[in-house]
């Protein structure tokens, strides 16, 4: 009644920008108009980069918009991601740093100490499976800044496969040549809601998952990154 949960493919903008490309938000407007949901204009409440796939929550009613926005602002909705990164990682870590955004370049930088206008960031990750040159990670955003996962992991020496902006050219070339990969392998696979009352009480402590894209699944299989235990996904 109040929200929509959407699985966004890679290559689609979450919200419109100056490029005149169609966006997920445009599609939501069309969907609600076609299905006569006219109580409010739907709007996404969490954003994903254009080339990041996965689950997004949108408000469909005014109450849904307001309550979802509050939940995301207060960081009480848990967001879990899957990605493939460079290097063989074997232990979980909770990493911290400071992120500075360069709006002109649409790029961020991460440093271990606070600089002018930098925002604190926190990222938790757990290795799920690895081979000799790459690791499948589960990542949880403690804070949610622009390009946080991509830039934070790259600053630790573990850039994402396919990430042209923050990644390793050699690592990216391997995945491009072997699999035709043209974007970062980053997938928002799960949203988990806290205990709730009121209009969104039926979402209390529920989670919603988006299946990995076909190309992501194929790469996991070929790289022998799907053979490990997935207990750490729980």
Mean pLDDT: 90
Using only C-alpha atoms, the radius of gyration works out to 18 Å
Strand pairing plus helix content: what structural class? alpha+beta
Based on the structure, what is the oligomeric state of the protein chains? single chain
What is the H/E string? EHEEHEEEEEHHEEH
Query: What's the main sheet like?
Result: 10 strands, mixed
Percent in strands: 25-35%
- The outline comes out as globular
Tally the helices: what do you get? 5
- Separation of termini? 28 Å
Let me know the number of strands. 10
Q: What is the helical fraction, as a range of percent?
A: 10-25%
Low-pLDDT residue spans: none
Structure report:
It contains five helices and ten strands, in the order βαββαβββββααββα. It is of the alpha+beta class and 234 residues long. Strands 1, 2, 3, 4, 5, 6, 7, 8, 9 and 10 form a ten-stranded mixed sheet that branches. A hairpin with a 4-residue loop joins strand 5 (93-102) and strand 6. The mean pLDDT is 90.
Briefly say what this structure is.
With 234 residues, the protein is of the alpha+beta class. The chain has helices spanning 24-34, 62-73, 148-155, 169-179, 214-222, and strands at residues 3-8, 43-44, 53-59, 78-86, 93-102, 107-111, 119-130, 134-141, 186-192, 207-209.
Which key phrases capture this entry?
ten-stranded mixed sheet; 10 strands; 234 residues; alpha+beta; single chain; 29% strand
């Amino acid at each position: 009644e109040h929200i929509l949960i959407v699985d966004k493919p890679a290559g689609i903008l979450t919200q419109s920008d100056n490029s005149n490309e169609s966006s997920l938000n445009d599609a939501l407007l069309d969907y609600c108009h076609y299905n006569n949901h006219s109580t409010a204009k739907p709007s996404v409440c969490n954003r994903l980069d254009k080339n990041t796939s996965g689950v997004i929550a949108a408000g469909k009613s005014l109450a849904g918009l307001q309550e979802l926005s509050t939940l995301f602002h207060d960081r009480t909705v848990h967001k879990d991601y899957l990605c493939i990164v460079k290097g063989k990682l074997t232990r979980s870590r909770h990493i911290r740093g400071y992120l500075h955004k360069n709006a002109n370049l649409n790029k961020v930088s991460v440093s271990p100490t606070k600089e002018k206008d930098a925002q604190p960031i926190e990222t938790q990750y757990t290795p799920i499976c690895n081979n000799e040159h790459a690791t499948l990670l589960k990542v949880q955003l403690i804070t949610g800044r622009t390009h946080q996962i991509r830039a934070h992991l790259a600053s630790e020496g573990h850039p994402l496969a396919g990430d042209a902006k923050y990644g390793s050219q050699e690592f990216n070339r391997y995945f491009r040549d072997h699999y035709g990969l043209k974007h970062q392998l980053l997938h928002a696979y799960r949203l988990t809601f806290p205990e709730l009352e009121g209009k969104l009480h039926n979402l209390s402590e529920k989670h919603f998952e988006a299946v990995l894209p076909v190309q992501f699944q194929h790469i996991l299989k070929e790289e022998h990154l799907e053979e490990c235990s997935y207990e750490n996904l729980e």
